[in-house]
């Protein structure tokens, strides 16, 4: 890995392949299998037109990648962001393969993205873009083939448009083609909170393992969207004090603790957490290096790097985001004794409840939130202890422990199925 020795941006796909290589090496994986698992199975690029409100036609670019289908249909979110690249989507698809395997749900990995800043679109334009993008990727998606879900900047409303578009094309309602839908359209209770809730279940286990009392713990959260703001709220419910949070425009800090409900209200009114009364404005970089016991990166990739890993004060880093830590930073944190809960374990609650949603849709069933959360907890706690046991047994960090479990499961399934034809 030389990504950080140059000034070029860190390439998430190279990071993902490097993480896989480490595990494949340790598992002494068959070279042929290694070549198969190192690349995505399918990559689709689409350029598609959208009629804008001013009457002009704009062409957008989007992607859908399926990394591996050995353990089941592809599963993974769709991201709308101006910085989306094919390599980012490939990395996210590979991480989904490992994530589904870590928590042992029967899916392969997929991911999608559109290069767009959705904040610059009207609601009508956003709907037009979403419906046309989904139409373009329908060559890959389907309830038995590839089931998208929300990710950065995509919402239950967008999932509803995706579901309706697919259903219109096949002539009947197909709720199981996408998860993260509104409850009234076959969405699952608890899905909205699932990523953060799963993350907090793993933090509770990590704290118990380390002998940390969550009632006196302090927390910093980078990213105040679906994963971040709900994680902050749930940590307060655990008795912890959230001392810093941030969004794309910057962060805020109050060492006495932030009132998260009021910060949410402030963000809804002002579009950012910045300027929140009674807190000091700080930069996103400062949020990461804030004095705290638990750091929850919940924004984008490559936030904790060789440059700042030495300055992280937290004892636990819980990766609600995908890919927030680079391999170099992983090593620095491990050497410094920071306990990192890796993304493919820490944020797997989202895909786990997406799986529950899909099962409910296929069975025309609806579970209670209590049922959903209980099943989620069982899966998250079990996966956490399987990863911890592996990491302790091998003397490696939690990320490598998670990769060893995941890659072994996917490799076994792939080898058992054999090579077609
Ligand atoms: P979201 O769009 O709801 O929120 C993203 C948040 O990050 C926003 O508050 C945004 O302002 C902030 N942000 C963007 N760039 C930032 C920057 N440079 N610094 C600080 N904050 C920044 O998205 P989300 O669904 O919460 O996803 C966040 C992360 O969690 C992503 O890595 C995503 O892949 C991961 N994730 C999400 C889910 C899910 O179910 N939503 C599941 C698993 C993993």
Fold and architecture overview:
- The structure is a single chain.
- With 421 residues, the chain is of the alpha/beta class.
- The protein has two domains: 40-185, 3-Layer(aba) Sandwich (Rossmann fold); 194-346, NAD(P)-binding Rossmann-like Domain (Rossmann fold, 3-Layer(aba) Sandwich), CATH 3.40.50.
- The protein is 45% helix and 17% strand.
- It has helices at residues 12-27, 31-37, 86-102, 123-136, 156-170, 191-210, 226-237, 260-270, 284-288, 327-335, 343-346, 349-362, 369-394, 398-417; strands at 42-51, 57-68, 74-81, 108-115, 146-150, 218-222, 241-247, 250-253, 280-282, 294-297, 316-318, 339-341.
- It has a seven-stranded mixed sheet, with helices on both faces. A five-stranded mixed sheet has the order 1-2-4-3-5.
- Strand 7 and strand 8 (250-253) form a beta hairpin.
- Helix 6 (191-210) crosses helix 13.
- The longest helix is centred in the last third of the chain and has 26 residues, at 369-394.
- It is globular.
- The relative contact order is 0.13.
- Mean pLDDT is 96; it is low at 1-6.
- The structure holds nicotinamide-adenine-dinucleotide (NAD).
- Nicotinamide-adenine-dinucleotide binds at residues 150-153, 195, 222-228, 246-248, 284, 298-300, 320-322, 347, 350.
């Amino acid at each position: 890995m030389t990504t950080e020795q140059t000034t070029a941006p860190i390439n998430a796909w190279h990071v993902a392949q490097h993480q896989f290589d480490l595990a494949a090496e340790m598992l002494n994986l068959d070279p042929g299998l290694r070549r198969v698992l190192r690349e995505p199975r399918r990559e689709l690029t689409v350029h598609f037109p959208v009629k804008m409100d001013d009457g002009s036609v704009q062409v957008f670019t989007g992607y859908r990648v399926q990394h591996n289908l050995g353990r089941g249909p592809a599963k993974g979110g769709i991201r709308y962001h101006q910085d989306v690249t094919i390599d980012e989507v490939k990395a996210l698809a590979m991480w989904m393969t490992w994530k589904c395997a870590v928590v042992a749900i029967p899916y392969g990995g997929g991911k999608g993205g559109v290069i767009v800043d959705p904040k610059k679109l009207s609601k009508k334009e956003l709907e037009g873009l979403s419906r046309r993008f989904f139409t373009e990727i329908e060559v890959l998606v389907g309830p038995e083939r590839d089931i998208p879900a929300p990710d950065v900047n995509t919402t239950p409303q967008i999932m509803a448009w995706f579901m309706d578009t697919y259903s219109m094309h096949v002539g009947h309602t197909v709720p199981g083609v996408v998860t993260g839908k509104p409850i009234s359209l076959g969405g699952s209770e608890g899905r909205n909170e699932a990523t953060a809730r799963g993350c907090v279940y793993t933090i509770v286990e990590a704290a118990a393992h380390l002998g940390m009392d969550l009632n006196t713990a302090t927390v910093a959260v980078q990213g105040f969207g679906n994963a971040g703001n709900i994680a902050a709220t749930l940590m307060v419910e655990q008795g912890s004090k959230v001392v810093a949070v941030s969004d794309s425009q910057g962060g805020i800090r109050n060492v006495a603790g932030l009132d998260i409900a009021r910060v949410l209200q402030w963000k809804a009114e002002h579009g950012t957490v910045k300027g929140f009364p009674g807190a000091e404005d700080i930069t996103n970089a400062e949020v990461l290096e804030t004095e705290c016991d638990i750091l929850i990166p919940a924004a984008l990739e490559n936030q904790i790097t060789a440059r700042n890993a030495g300055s992280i004060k937290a004892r636990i880093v819980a990766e609600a985001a995908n890919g927030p830590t680079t391999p170099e930073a992983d090593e620095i944190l491990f050497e410094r004794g920071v306990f990192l809960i890796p993304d493919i374990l820490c944020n797997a609650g989202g895909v786990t409840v997406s799986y529950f949603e899909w099962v409910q849709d296929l069975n025309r069933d609806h579970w209670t939130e209590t049922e959903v959360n209980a099943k989620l907890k069982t899966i998250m706690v079990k996966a956490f202890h399987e990863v911890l046991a592996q990491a302790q047994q091998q003397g490696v960090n939690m990320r490598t422990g998670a990769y060893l479990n995941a890659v072994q499961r996917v490799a076994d399934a792939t080898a058992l199925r054999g090579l077609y034809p």
